[in-house]
Automatic annotation (TrEMBL), chains A, B:
Topology relative to the membrane: Single-pass type II membrane protein
GN (gene name): DBH
Subunit and partners: Homotetramer; composed of two disulfide-linked dimers.
Entries under Gene3D superfamilies matching the protein: 2.60.120.230, Copper type II, ascorbate-dependent monooxygenase, N-terminal domain (2.60.120.310)
Pathway the protein acts in: Catecholamine biosynthesis; (R)-noradrenaline biosynthesis; (R)-noradrenaline from dopamine: step 1/1
Transmembrane segments: 21-42
Claim: Oxidoreductase is one of the keywords in the record: yes
Protein name as it appears in the record: Dopamine beta-hydroxylase
UniProt-listed InterPro entries: Cu2_ascorb_mOase-like_C, Cu2_ascorb_mOase_CS-2, Cu2_ascorb_mOase_N, Cu2_ascorb_mOase_N_sf, Cu2_monoox_C, DBH-like, DOH_DOMON, DOMON_domain
Membrane found in the keyword field: yes
Chief place where the protein resides: cytoplasm
Function comment: Catalyzes the hydroxylation of dopamine to noradrenaline (also known as norepinephrine), and is thus vital for regulation of these neurotransmitters.
Amino acid sequence: MQTVRGRSCLQNLKLREVVSVYFTMLAVVLVILIASFQGVVLKADGFPYKVPLDPQGALELSWNISYPEEVVHFQLSVKELKYGVMLGMSDRGEFRNADFVILWSDGHNSYFGDAWSDQHGRLQLDAQQDYQLLEAHRTPEGLNLIFKRAFSTCDPKDYLIEDGTVHLIYGLLEQPVHSLGAINISSIPKGLQRVQLLKPEISIPELPDDVVTFEVLAPNVTIPNQETTYWCYITELPDNFPKHHIVMYEPVITKGNEAIVHHIEVFQCAPEYDTIPHYNGPCDSKMKPERLNYCRHVLAAWAMGAKAFYYPEEAGLAFGGSGSSKYLRLEVHYHNPLELKGRIDSSGIRLYYTPSLRKYDAGIMELGLVYTPVMAIPPHEKDFILTGYCTDKCTQTALPHGGIHIFASQLHTHLTGRKVATILVRNGAEVEIVNMDNHFSAHFQEIRMLKKVVKVLPGESLITSCTYNTEDRSKATVGGFGILDEMCVNYIHYYPQSDLELCKSAVDLGYLQKYFNFMNRFNNEEICMCPQASVTEQYNSVPWNSFSRDVLQSLYDFAPISMHCNKSTALRFPGEWEKQPLPKITKKLPSPVPHCDTTECSPAKAPIIVNIDKKKN
Amino acid sequence: MQTVRGRSCLQNLKLREVVSVYFTMLAVVLVILIASFQGVVLKADGFPYKVPLDPQGALELSWNISYPEEVVHFQLSVKELKYGVMLGMSDRGEFRNADFVILWSDGHNSYFGDAWSDQHGRLQLDAQQDYQLLEAHRTPEGLNLIFKRAFSTCDPKDYLIEDGTVHLIYGLLEQPVHSLGAINISSIPKGLQRVQLLKPEISIPELPDDVVTFEVLAPNVTIPNQETTYWCYITELPDNFPKHHIVMYEPVITKGNEAIVHHIEVFQCAPEYDTIPHYNGPCDSKMKPERLNYCRHVLAAWAMGAKAFYYPEEAGLAFGGSGSSKYLRLEVHYHNPLELKGRIDSSGIRLYYTPSLRKYDAGIMELGLVYTPVMAIPPHEKDFILTGYCTDKCTQTALPHGGIHIFASQLHTHLTGRKVATILVRNGAEVEIVNMDNHFSAHFQEIRMLKKVVKVLPGESLITSCTYNTEDRSKATVGGFGILDEMCVNYIHYYPQSDLELCKSAVDLGYLQKYFNFMNRFNNEEICMCPQASVTEQYNSVPWNSFSRDVLQSLYDFAPISMHCNKSTALRFPGEWEKQPLPKITKKLPSPVPHCDTTECSPAKAPIIVNIDKKKN
């Protein structure tokens, strides 16, 4: 192997001198920079995280994270490289306004550089080169590139790598590239892969000696040759299976299907039903027994790019025992955009459980908005925010004296959701982000371990906000169960388990009626406000404009709420829960300031030439 | 004279090395930096602008501006320097969160540096030193400091020098200073002076040969020994004075009173009155004849720091002739905080006029909000915006075919006004800022020449927004003439004069009533909405909270307006002016991005030692 070009400060100064020359040449003429770089020792402790980028598995990205340095090291493996490859990040996977690292060849030389695409998708070299190439070599399988980038580069053309979902995009260059501006993104092979890049750095608890595994796997399913399939399969635990604690689970992915198995969930069925019919088929089939809809208690969830999920050593998820169903439902999402035929799959999840119960049962609690049409998003909105409250009064009433510890979280909306965040509030002051995803996608809903366990005491509030985009809709989107309705939910995983299963809110219906009445009068009584009209009908009759939108938003931000402070029996805790005041926020969390160390040596200003050795050493 | 220390790039590197040492020493121990600076040739072409900072005239600031370099050169003259002087800038003249340049002495050495005060008024050295000392020398009168600073330093601790009002603050150090943190701002002599720092760079038109002057001066007034006096004096033009054009005017300030004469205006009386009684006394005196209230047509206005006002060479302000009054009212604002006794003053304004009429009469037009209580600001607001419109329909109806040219502007609000801006809109797109002041003060209302003449064509709109702060008020502040009511006005000076004297708006009263009704119902009919209640009474009965505030703001941003598209006769132009739609803005002006040249040599990171020679050479 050869050829990594490390850069020292002094060498950067050299580079900088060259820049002025560089930029005065025509854009198509790439400068040949023959500098004597020193080899660099790769500090990467391997690449623990890995994800296929394309459905064929021709591109694979693995990475590691250094939190102290705020840097990600990437390893991009490419089979059958032609004239280059580009890897990018953008807000939601668009190829416009995206940030790219590109390896390209003009037929003579290969170049490596940081680039960006404008609003028309035209590529340009970045004035500040923030990807640093560490290694480029051929392998028996193809090409391996190792490079690194800081979370935040402070270059406005660069993507800020944040917690939560990152939309990775890639493209393959199949023609010689004489200038980046000449690459026509619309005509090259390309794709999108969502991933949580900044995995939490948590210590893995030791598994007990008596741990047993149970695999819930698809039974040699032939993956349908269609883009999207949700496969449902019912399996069951032994009769009289006593209570255990699940302490870990991990994905089991059939070799070769890594790029197709998109996500997997295991649900337990409702204990109310003694039997659940066996089933093995698509979840949306008309043949699917109705009763499968009562298998919704999440035991495990995995999505592409995720690794094993460990419970904290004090807690485990109750599994088996009286009062729980022996029936489990496996759901596998196959994403098969190439519509490959005849692929056989036995992917699933391997549960690790122990009969030696841990100190605490873990619980799952729903935060956010009640599933009701009283909360709605006007049409044509770019970023409309709905907020659900778990009030101080409910946590005071329902949480154990010592509070609870949240260690994981699964955010959930339907199709128009764009961002989700839950914030902990103490005495009117925002104190901590429980979980946040600024690039949330309904197509990528993992259970994520929190970087730091969050303790919530009785009397504190949890505020969950969801941002929606309804630009392509012409009617109001109301809350509800339908795929075209919306939800705003954070399923928090916590211990010790409490009776509080659901802590959610919705605006008071009486105040919403005052809003409808005002809109009616404002529009000279032209709206049908028949008293028998449903809330959804009333929303549909509002003439949507900046005023009706703004006043609705103001109403949601001010009017009293109906609190659902519910036990697992779906009954409310005793108390008055109607017309409750909104939690008052007197102190916001400071906005995060990206760390930009401007005193350090500036990054390079031009791409570098890459020598790729034909043989791996 | 000695001793200016220019800094070259290399010297900065030296400085930078010293910094690390510097910051490791105790804050009270100032490093002694003995570097061999080279003398620098001051590029200042003199200092055309000058303003006294304090009422005694002990501190005087003069300056010049380089627009190509975006730099201001300052000359600060100090009489009787003790242990130092500080000059600062802040949003509204506060000593907290302010940006300072400080010359201080510990008794042995003198230092010059860039500093800032935190929210508690504590001083700290700036990590980045953005004031550059060019000269420091003794003069027969005291000390002269010459230094420069960029408009924008991109240091978040530094004030951004913008167009419009700048609040200058100063303080005198009368004890040795061992550390900036030890300076107790609350106990040093200090003060505030408002000034327009970024004067427009416009070429001065040549005056005609037959120009004549007419001085409107205070007749040896004894300035009252009280902080604030508005002095009124009636003078008159000769009988049968024919029409002339005023082409220029300039201030005439009695020597010694430069720090007391705050602003001066000359008004012409209404032609409806054949005689106006003579008067010479305070404007608020009960002895002042009632008729003086009809002398409101502005001929000239000057405020401290302003220079001569020139009309563009194509236009002049009509002066004399049939249909105009021969009576003029002079108003001088004396600001005498030291309550000096027995000062005699003959300040005023010298008008330059010509019988050779220029091509165009200049006109003055009022933009903004109608003086009506239907536009109101809720109490306890930090920055509430009201907007007045001059619609495309009005300009289409009333402006001459070739449009008008705006060359000057006087912004006007009452006490709670904080910002004022007028923006020109063409086909729904904001195209140009006519005038803007982000640090507007009701105490400093100059007529300002525009940097660039703005042409307005029939069919374009002019949108004037005012930002108010009512944090110290407990009731709504309504529009109106009273000093505790508010206004939002831009008096634009333009040519050729048109019949359109006033182009202003207010929200439609019917829609405002719908708002009051909604607030009433929302609060369970608890508000008195007696039909005979005045708008002001209804505003006073609204329970102010985030909801009533937000909905009012949304109403103002959406509801139709009543347009006042008025002739000088105070009658409207023919047409329908009620329930007009708001101009739709589809494209905003981009936010200005401060220019920060980070590729240049970084500024110093520590203060420098100053050698002040005792003798001027």
